[in-house]
Design brief:
Elements: E1 8-12, H1 16-29, E2 34-39, H2 56-63, H3 67-73, E3 77-79, E4 81-85, E5 93-97, H4 110-119, H5 131-135, E6 160-162, H6 165-178, E7 182-185, E8 188-193, E9 200-205, E10 210-212, E11 215-218, E12 235-237, E13 246-252, E14 262-267, E15 270-276, E16 281-287, H7 294-303, E17 314-317, E18 321-323, E19 327-328, E20 331-333, E21 339-340, H8 348-361, H9 370-396, H10 404-411, H11 416-428, H12 441-450, H13 467-487, H14 491-498
Parallel strand pairs: 1-2, 1-11, 2-7, 4-14, 11-20
Antiparallel strand pairs: 3-6, 4-5, 8-9, 9-10, 12-18, 13-16, 13-17, 14-15, 15-16, 18-21, 19-20
The protein binds flavin-adenine dinucleotide.
């Protein structure tokens, strides 16, 4: 009987997705598997992707990458959340902060008490009750403290990173190669398939070398060399809900201390990001080509930089959506090859991480069981659809009437799943995180309220707290958060003390 165990894994592509997969497989699967990665410097990588979500810390922990060394190597800064300007209407601003919101009381999440207190005129802005939201615009940051009581907000600070994704891929490449991953430089010219079932057998380079494997990971970027161009998995286009289809990216000189948050400012037909790194600031304008010309988009981007542009804006085109199957036969697509959603909530690198861990959980012992494949695809779809809904929320829940783009977003039909969540929240502030969906209740609550969806009702148990006690509770939480933020160091000082990157050209620590 032939042994159909997977022994050879071929990763196509050496962008963030390819090297994250290579590093994780090398660490987790170990020496029983031969892992090869093929990439083409001539084709290059997308090279944007500078803001993350807190989950990346877990990925680096899994690999055993030291956080301080990581931040130094990638010119990293810390991210407490995202500031959304002009989204609800011009002049509005709110922060989607990571981590806790206020303090739970009994069964109920904090925002239930906040709704009632706000109705009685006893509540401050929701952001006053979030450590991250209060600390970010004040330029503060610290990692969780170990010398405070476990109940202190300082004991458990949720944060992510801003980084240079090219440097991260380089770090992961060193990591993976040191653990036996074999990298091959070259352009794949042909994909060889098995007769009958179409399983991929080998990728053939322009040099003529054929690289064979049992499992192929397609990290070839938007083109989807294996998953789409070879297996024709199909693509669900979500542009009718998320109409932005282009971006221009440009770095500018750093002016002033790096902020501990990403900034997202709504524009006439999209939005602009600002991501501070240690050595420069990343900027980009995501927009809808049906509503704005490329020249207008570039002019808007360049008119809103903090410092001098470091080059010409780089154009990127995309179609928001998801492959119908992200695992088809013996090919699993990760990163841009699997689908794309704009970087509004910095979810792409997270989705790579999540795809890797899902694949490792469902890794076949022998052959390719359809049951494993179906479960993988169902979980991926669920996760992506929930993120899609969360992104649509930002566009749809707006009062903006100033441009055709915003009028379209405000009045468009939205997925039934999102409609239900908005209706439930508007009714009584309830939200339920389903299954393994990425964004937790606190994220949805901050964005819904930040975008102007204010619940009319609240949970009946809130009424058990008399108004005087409710007021005292709100004031206490607000004071504790304010005191904690006061005690936090400046973000820039924290970086200087703990994880300053080496100046360009200096040798890196091993
Ligand atoms: C405008 C924009 C902003 C973004 N911002 C963020 C963000 O802030 N946060 C975030 O998490 N994500 C962000 N992303 C997403 C992020 O950039 C990607 O998820 C990430 O870079 C992964 O890309 P990738 O590795 O899938 O593809 P790529 O970087 O495109 O890499 C593809 C690889 O495949 C190789 N390849 C392709 N064809 C061949 C061939 N024929 N032969 C050999 N090799 C081949 C290429 O050489 C390359 O190595 C953003 C994306 C865009 C478009």
């Amino acid at each position: 009987m032939s042994d159909s165990r997977i022994r050879n894994i071929v990763i196509v592509g050496g962008g963030t997705a390819g090297w994250m997969a290579a590093a994780a497989f090398a660490k987790v699967l170990g020496a029983d598997y031969a892992i090869r990665l093929v990439e083409s410097e001539q084709i290059g990588t997308v090279g944007v992707g500078e803001a993350t979500v807190p989950h990346l810390k877990l990925f680096n922990n899994l690999l055993g990458i030291d956080e301080i060394e990581f931040v130094r190597r990638v010119q990293g800064t810390f991210k407490l959340g995202i500031q959304f300007n002009d989204w609800g209407q011009p002049g509005d601003s709110y922060i989607h902060g990571f981590g806790e919101l206020g303090r739970m009381l009994g069964l109920l999440p904090f925002h239930q008490y906040w709704i009632r207190a706000a109705q009685l005129g006893l509540a401050a802005d929701l952001g006053e009750y979030s450590l991250n939201t209060l600390a970010a615009p004040r330029g503060k940051f610290m990692a969780s403290a170990s010398d405070v009581p476990a109940s202190s907000p300082l004991a458990n600070i949720a944060y992510a990173y801003h980084f240079d994704s090219g440097l991260y891929a380089k770090l992961l490449r060193e990591y993976a190669e040191a653990r036996g991953v074999r990298r091959t430089e070259g352009r794949i010219a042909q994909v060889r398939q098995r007769a009958g079932d179409g399983f991929v057998q080998a990728v053939v380079l322009e040099s003529g070398e054929a690289i064979e494997g049992e499992l192929f990971i397609d990290c070839s970027g938007f083109r989807g060399l294996l998953i789409e161009q070879t297996l024709h998995a199909g693509y669900d286009d979500w542009t009718h809900w998320l109409p932005c289809d282009r971006a221009l990216a440009v770095a500018c000189e750093k002016v002033g201390p790096p902020t501990s948050y990403t900034r997202s400012t709504a524009r006439a037909a999209g939005w602009q990001w600002r991501i501070p790194l240690q050595h420069r600031t990343g900027n980009g304008h995501v927009y809808s080509s049906a509503h704005l010309s490329d020249d207008e988009a570039a002019a808007t981007l360049l008119a809103h930089l903090d410092g001098k542009a470091l080059g010409e804006p780089r154009p990127l085109r995309f179609t928001t959506g998801l492959r119908r199957k992200t695992w088809d036969r013996n090919v699993v697509a990760l990163g841009l090859a699997s689908g794309f959603m704009e970087p509004l909530e910095s979810t792409s690198i997270y989705l790579i991480q999540s795809g890797i861990s899902r694949l490792l959980n469902l890794f076949p012992r022998q052959g390719f069981s359809p049951v494993l494949i179906e479960r993988y695809n169902a979980q991926t779809r669920f996760e992506c659809e929930r993120i899609r809904d969360f992104l649509i929320l930002h566009y749809h829940a707006t009062q903006r009437r100033d441009t055709p783009f915003w009028n379209q977003c405000r009045t468009m039909d939205i997925p039934a799943s999102l409609k239900d969540n908005i209706a439930l929240f508007r009714d009584s502030g309830r939200f339920f995180r389903e299954g393994e969906e990425m964004f937790a209740q606190v994220s949805w609550v901050q964005v819904m309220i930040g975008q102007g969806i204010v619940p009319t009702g609240y949970h009946p148990l809130v009424d058990q707290l008399p108004p005087k006690e409710l007021e005292a509770f709100m004031q206490h939480v607000q004071r504790v958060i304010a005191d904690c933020v006061e005690a936090m160091p400046a973000h820039e000082a924290f970086i200087a003390r703990c994880c300053q990157a080496a100046p360009a050209g200096a040798p890196m620590a091993a």
